[in-house]
Write a structure and sequence with these properties.
Elements: E1 9-12, E2 15-20, E3 23-29, E4 39-43, E5 53-60, E6 64-70, H1 74-80, E7 87-94, E8 105-112, H2 117-125, E9 129-137, E10 153-158, E11 165-166, E12 180-184, H3 187-199, E13 203-207, E14 223-226, E15 229-232, E16 239-241
């Protein structure tokens, strides 16, 4: 494919808007690629030791790439101040995404908070699957409307009870109803989902979230423990079979 953006490049911001408290949507126009579950490294600063930030792909089409991110520290705070037509440096796509071609049948997407962001692209890409979305949030949901054309059913939980079920999304998730489960979110939530799936012998794919320095497997900052030894989340993941993760 011609004119695909690869490795580090300087791009112009098309849009960078706050869609919910502390949640930003960054859009860059152009011809980009990436599989569901992959990520890019982003930066808009020249000072060290502030490292680039790994941001999962939220959406790609023929005209643009979209990133959804939460402001949690200095790096994402700096990204949130980007204005239209300002420069942002990106590198990617990186990591291994979901094995879309081998995901069939009845599928559950289980997400928590900003972990819902990469699952939009997953849902949009899965074909010939019946998909249900289980999305948990602390107080208020976001980007749920973007899933409606790609999934059959949507179940929402909030810890405050503001929307949907009051409590955790794992309280209402039943893995035995599905052939495959795809999960991304807080580690405690993913641990619970993996255990529920293991108890019912249901295959589950986990998209890990770790602090990263390089994004290409050289620095070993993002190492996670698996049955097959330590793996690099950025290079060997971020998507793993749930049964492999310790």
């Amino acid at each position: 494919m011609e004119n695909i953006k690869m490795n580090y490049s300087t791009e112009k911001v098309y849009e960078n808007v706050e869609i919910e408290d502390g949640i930003y949507k960054l859009t860059i126009k152009g011809n980009f690629n990436g599989k569901p579950g992959q990520f890019y490294m982003l930066r808009s600063w020249n000072r060290e030791p502030l490292l680039s930030r790994p941001i999962s792909i939220n959406h790609i089409d023929k005209e643009k790439i979209v990133f959804l991110y939460q402001v949690v520290g200095e790096g994402t705070e700096t990204l949130s101040r980007l204005k239209k037509f300002e420069d942002v440096e990106i590198m990617g796509p990186l990591g291994n995404g979901f094995d879309i071609d081998n995901i069939k049948g009845k599928v559950a997407i289980v997400s928590g908070g900003i972990g819902t962001a990469p699952m939009q692209y997953v849902a949009e890409t899965l074909k010939e699957c019946s998909i249900d979305l289980y999305a948990g949030f602390r107080d208020k949901s976001y980007i749920i409307d973007e899933f409606k054309q790609a999934v059959e059913n949507i179940k929402i939980s909030t810890e405050t009870g503001r929307e949907g079920y009051k409590g955790y999304i794992t309280d209402i998730f039943k893995p035995e109803l599905y052939d495959v489960v795809l999960c991304c979110g807080p580690e405690v939530m993913m641990n619970k989902v993996a255990k529920l799936c293991k108890d019912k012998s249901i295959k589950v794919y986990i998209s890990m979230e770790k602090h990263m320095a390089c994004g290409v497997g050289a620095c070993l900052v993002c190492t996670c423990k698996t049955k097959h030894g330590n793996k690099r989340t950025c290079k060997d993941g971020p998507v793993f079979l749930g049964e492999e993760i310790l």
